User: Which sequence fits this backbone?
């Protein structure tokens, strides 16, 4: 992990530099700029724009416009987080106050809207119509997945297909678009575009599964989020779904715990985590993440060996090994 971060640091620093220049040129209002920079320069690893650069790098393409296109995905990601924090009534992100606790919800929603519109302008002007179509589809999928997640929570939907439908929109769609846009920019064949879209989709799905595991098993001091939020909110994540299968006494007890209030679920979290562990829910979820990463890496086999390909492999393994 340390080696990976060291290897990608020059690229992430370049992304940050270009992003700072781009925002300075795009934003006239000082307060808007302050809110956006608070949200964007918050210690993120720049994985999404990096995936765009690396995907184009599989075909040996690199240019200033590629980096500007890559910014699209950091802006859309940041916009979604700004809006999510308002919706979720969040208090902290990455160990510091969320933006809407520093400014108002109105300020933050408008800043998210600006980032979204600016991202689309970049996508269209730098990436062209094909990139814009892919990115618009991803943005729409992100919104639809939020509605689906709300419906699933209300119904306590236990069908695995519903879970993955949410993940494809919530996390995987934007990551897949980041990879496919790099392929489009580099002039890849349709087969190359499809391979990178599959890589990005599976990477995003595995990323979210590991995120779900960390919500039960992680260290809050590392993740920057309180452990147990998903269970308290009644979110039907993959470890929980696997634990609810069958009709054992443990599964029945877990189902009963889910019918309690959010406050009670918080009190019962340790017991729920023990049940998920005993029923193999954590093991099964991790196994599914590993399978997805294996499929993602197999999709890259059509590309020749390169440093970009090596880094994409390392990022895929990082997704499985991360602890925050």
Assistant:
């Amino acid at each position: 992990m340390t080696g990976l971060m060291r290897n990608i640091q020059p690229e992430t620093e370049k992304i940050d530099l270009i992003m700072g220049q781009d925002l300075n040129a795009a934003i006239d209002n000082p307060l808007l700029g302050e809110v956006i920079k608070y949200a964007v320069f918050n210690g993120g690893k720049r994985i999404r724009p990096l995936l765009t650069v690396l995907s184009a790098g599989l075909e040996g393409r690199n240019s200033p416009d590629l980096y500007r296109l890559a910014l699209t995905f950091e802006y859309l990601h940041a916009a979604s987080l700004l809006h999510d924090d308002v919706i979720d009534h969040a208090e902290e992100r990455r160990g510091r106050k969320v933006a809407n606790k520093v400014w108002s919800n109105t300020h933050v929603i408008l800043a998210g809207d600006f980032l979204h519109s600016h991202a689309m302008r970049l996508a269209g002007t730098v990436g062209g119509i094909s990139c814009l179509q892919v990115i618009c589809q991803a943005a729409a999928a992100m919104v639809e997945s939020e509605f689906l997640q709300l419906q699933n929570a209300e119904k306590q939907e236990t069908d695995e297909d519903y879970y993955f439908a949410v993940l494809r929109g919530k996390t995987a769609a934007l990551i897949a678009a980041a990879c496919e846009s790099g392929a489009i920019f580099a002039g890849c064949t349709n087969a190359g575009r499809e391979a990178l879209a599959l890589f990005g989709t599976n990477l995003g799905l595995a990323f979210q599964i590991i995120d779900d595991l960390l919500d039960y098993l992680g260290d809050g001091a590392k993740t920057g989020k309180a452990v147990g939020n998903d269970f308290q909110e009644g979110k039907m994540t993959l470890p929980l779904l696997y634990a609810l299968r069958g009709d054992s006494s443990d599964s029945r007890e877990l189902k009963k715990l889910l019918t309690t209030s959010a406050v009670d679920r918080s009190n019962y979290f340790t017991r729920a985590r023990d049940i998920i562990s005993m029923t193999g829910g954590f093991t099964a979820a991790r196994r599914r993440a590993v399978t997805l990463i294996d499929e993602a890496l197999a999709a890259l086999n059509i590309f020749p060996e390169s440093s970009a390909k090596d880094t994409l492999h390392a990022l895929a393994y990082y997704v499985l090994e991360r602890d925050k």
In short: DSSP finds 16 helices and two strands in the chain. The longest strand covers residues 92-93.
